[in-house]
TrEMBL record:
Cofactors, names only: [4Fe-4S] cluster
Gene name as annotated: nadA
Protein name: Quinolinate synthase
Localization annotation: Cytoplasm
The EC number(s) this enzyme carries: 2.5.1.72
InterPro entries: NadA (IPR003473), NadA_sf (IPR036094), Quinolinate_synth_type2 (IPR023066)
Amino acid sequence: MKTLQDKIIALKQKKNAVILAHYYQHKAIQDIADFVGDSLELSRKASTTDADIIVFAGVYFMAETAKIVNPTKKVLIPDENAGCSLADGCPPEDFKQFLSNYPNHTVVTYINCSAEVKTLTDIVCTSSNAKKVIASIPEDQPIVFAPDKNLGKYLIAETGREMVLWEGSCIVHEAFSLEKLIDLHKKNPTAHIIAHPESETHILKVANYIGSTSGMINYVKNTDHDLFIVATEAGILHKMQQDNPQKTLIPAPAKEDNTCACSECAFMKLNTLEKLYNCLSDESPEVKLEQDIIEKALLPIQRMLALN
Ligand code: 13P
Ligand code: SF4
């Protein structure tokens, strides 16, 4: 009998579709994807694919970005309710109003925002190229950075640049408990703590390495060390462990009172294998954007892609 995986593969071939998945997706989705990556790598893949259909197994702003960079393709998302606290916490109208207080500022937005917010942006960044993006802006030019205040604070500390920050945050990365992390490290004193820059400053201060999801995966692979405490969404452990079967990876502990109860992104986890099959079969839900939004949102993404 054919498994759901077999059916997805057959349908994908028949329809000339490609499955792009983020590292935070369920294992079963990562295993069936044509490409698994961080948000920068996924947007690059989306821009260059010659498939007719892109099935984007990630959150909505990522699928929207795929549509913006390759608008002639049909972009599908297994669950269109897969939001993101950063994107949802920065409504375009409010952001427009906020920006009116900062004329002449260069507007840098983290890719975790809506297509409409991207149309209000000068240059987009991801967690893997944010420092490079900031360095590309003339020293005397004031900057507004949105929507992630934690990534923004990290960038201010790293680059020495003053920036006006939007007050957004990731509910998953804000849920790590410093107290519990320190306790865990006391029990595993040789462990390297690795963290995503969406985490709060006090978590980043105790980290041996800070980087994007791909950055963390490469760090674990390329470091001559065998014990790590990983402060990011737990889905990343699948690929990390596959790449390093002999190394020990411990997820960083979350606060007891956090909204997601663990370090899993409830939005990312809305996508399931069943929904992926159905969306490919029905060619729905499809990401649709108006042409003028695509054109305006593409410019700041292209500026970012041109830098790397
Ligand atoms: P990456 O850019 O590292 O893929 O991160 C995306 C994200 O949503 C992290 O929460
Ligand atoms: Fe958004 Fe946080 Fe989920 Fe990433 S982990 S998609 S930033 S809510």
